[in-house]
Amino acid sequence: MTSDTVGFLDILLLISFSSLFSLGGGNGPLAIIQDRWVNSGLLEPSLFSWALALGYLSPGPKAGFLSGIGYYMYGLPGALAAIIGIILPTLVGAGAVTYWFDRLQPVIKRISLPAGFVIAGMISAAAWNLAKPIALTPIEIGAILAIAIWVGWRSPEPAFIVLGAAGVGLAGWMLA
Amino acid sequence: MTNDPAGQSVASRIEPIQNSRVSLATLSLILFKIGATSFGGLWAGTQKLERELVIKRAWLTVEDQKALMVAATLIPAPKFLAFGGMVGFRLRGWTGSIVALFSIMAPPALCVLGGAIVLNPDVLGGPMPTLTRTVGIGVIGLLFGNAIHQIRSSRVTPRQRTIGIGIGASVAASAILGAPLILSALAGLALGIWLIRPGEENES
């Protein structure tokens, strides 16, 4: 634990506030946490990075890393505060949007046809932004292309790909 | 999407079941399962979501799923979480949404929490950079593969498909060049609604 000044309510409020900057897929909580807790010295950068790495290797929503941040800030109650903090605004938003979704079926019907292509564009942008800072080698680019074609045409279980990639990474480290 | 011998989408013939028939325990179990077995976020999990929610359970139609995925970007929250919350709300109202949100969030939160409690960066300091790099490459491949799957599964005419691919490429390019993703997506949707109209869909 690195902070004695941040409590349950502080974590809940900051995480809830930070989720407002997630509109459209932005990683708002990450930037806000870095700005408010890491830059101010309340959370060690190595622990922040470690929580992010754990979140990246975990299944499900990537927001899972918040439980690690909450834990480092205020122990188990902090982890709970972080989870509630991200769920509360999501609950309100999901309820509100779904309520209007039901009343806007004709509009939704018009949206659904082009939606697949827009989603494809959004997915591609997300993939590109993930790849940009990595500085990929030609072999890694080839691996990405092979996986993309495999997934696009054969629909394998995503967990196998992630576990396979982790296995390759572990083997590479052991052989190095 | 699964196709029958006649080539018609199985999912397109499934009507959503009555909401009251979905118990909170079942909802919780399925959302927990999705949370525990999906990697790479909402986009990478689209095929799994389609299998679980559309084909196996018939809780949503394919069109519902796509519309909810787009609607998830309108909520100021992580998209995967927002999608789960909306699925829960559609099936069981506010209670369903709360159950769905906690269930889908539980696996990653517990994994990270376990890692934070048991491990520290020094323990796995050696293989960690290599592991995160190779897993990252796998996830990037998954994301691009799901983009291909989205395009391939759209039931439109060849002309509409060509227009749609152009729109998708424009959305991706503008977001990559620095435009806010939500604005790029909304502009792409507006253009798509104008250019890709219902009635021309290729049913075969």
From TrEMBL, chain A:
Membrane topology: Multi-pass membrane protein
GO cellular component: plasma membrane
Main localization of the protein described in the UniProt heading: membrane
Subcellular location: Cell membrane
GO molecular function: chromate transmembrane transporter activity; lyase activity
Keyword ATP-binding found: no
UniProt keyword list: Cell membrane, Lyase, Membrane, Transmembrane, Transmembrane helix
Superkingdom, natural source: Bacteria
Transmembrane segments: 6-25, 37-58, 78-99, 111-128, 134-152, 159-175
Family note: Belongs to the chromate ion transporter (CHR) (TC 2.A.51) family.
Protein name: Reactivating factor for ethanolamine ammonia lyase
UniProt organism field: Marinobacter algicola DG893
Taxonomic lineage from the root: Bacteria, Pseudomonadati, Pseudomonadota, Gammaproteobacteria, Pseudomonadales
Automatic annotation (TrEMBL), chain B:
Residue stretches spanning the membrane: 22-44, 67-91, 98-119, 131-151, 163-196
Membrane topology according to the record: Multi-pass membrane protein
Location in the cell: Cell membrane
Keyword Protein transport annotated: no
Single GO MF descriptor: chromate transmembrane transporter activity
Main location per the UniProt record: membrane
Protein keywords: Cell membrane, Membrane, Transmembrane, Transmembrane helix
Annotated GO CC locations: plasma membrane
Keyword Membrane: yes
Family to which this protein belongs: Belongs to the chromate ion transporter (CHR) (TC 2.A.51) family.
Name this polypeptide is given: Chromate transporter
Organism of provenance: Marinobacter algicola DG893
